[in-house]
């Protein structure tokens, strides 16, 4: 059974990755502006003073403008740094944070490194995803960093995944370790997802 789920995930990721490659430079600029507008409004609605946010790759809906703007507004922004043990360290974004290529070629900050538990103090987590379904199940890129982070948090604040509009789908394949999100942010809207009732 897990093999079938993993194969379905791999196929869906490959399709989504291919689609992201075809997005034009202009569409990316528009998407980044839209994501910034949606995330700014979400931060204001929640009243978040401390957040975590990933630094987008060139094919993801852009988060760099949002991070810069949040820092300029005095919001504490933790940026993730991948570790070989599958956990995330964190670094506080500054107006002149230097960005380097981390593990897997991901953009990561250069700065003082805080351990994995630093994220326990944030009011909002903004995380990447390949797709999210209407129940809040998130399909990541297969490395498990954010699933581990969310699964280990004592008190998890709202978690929003940033995706393109077409990646908010009816259903994604899920495994036991996959963690749901509270909502999604796309370039055109923010959708809160109700927690499933047991």
Automatic annotation (TrEMBL):
Organism of derivation: Microbacterium testaceum
Binding positions (substrate): 55, 60
Enzyme class: ligase
Catalytic activity: (6S)-5-formyl-5,6,7,8-tetrahydrofolate + ATP = (6R)-5,10-methenyltetrahydrofolate + ADP + phosphate
GO BP terms, alphabetized: folic acid-containing compound biosynthetic process; tetrahydrofolate interconversion
Alphabetized SUPFAM superfamilies for the sequence: NagB/RpiA/CoA transferase-like (SSF100950)
Record-annotated membrane-spanning stretches: none
UniProt name for this protein: 5-formyltetrahydrofolate cyclo-ligase
């Amino acid at each position: 059974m897990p093999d079938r789920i993993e194969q379905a995930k791999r196929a869906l990721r490959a399709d989504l990755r291919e689609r992201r490659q075809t997005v034009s430079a202009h569409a990316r600029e528009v998407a980044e502006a839209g994501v910034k507008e949606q995330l700014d409004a979400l931060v204001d609605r929640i009243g978040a003073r401390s957040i975590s946010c990933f630094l987008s790759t060139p094919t993801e809906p852009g988060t760099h403008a949002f991070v810069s703007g949040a820092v300029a507004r005095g919001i504490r922004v933790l940026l993730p740094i991948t570790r070989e043990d599958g956990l995330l360290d964190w670094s506080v974004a500054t107006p002149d944070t230097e960005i380097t290529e981390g593990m897997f070629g991901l953009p990561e900050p250069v700065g003082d490194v805080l351990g994995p538990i630093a994220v326990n103090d944030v009011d909002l987590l903004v995380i990447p995803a390949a797709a999210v379904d209407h129940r809040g199940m998130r399909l990541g890129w297969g490395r498990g960093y954010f699933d581990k982070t969310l699964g280990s948090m004592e008190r998890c604040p709202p978690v929003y995944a940033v995706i393109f509009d077409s990646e908010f789908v009816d259903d994604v394949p899920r495994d036991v370790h996959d963690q749901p999100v509270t909502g999604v942010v796309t370039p055109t809207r923010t959708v809160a997802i109700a927690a499933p009732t047991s």
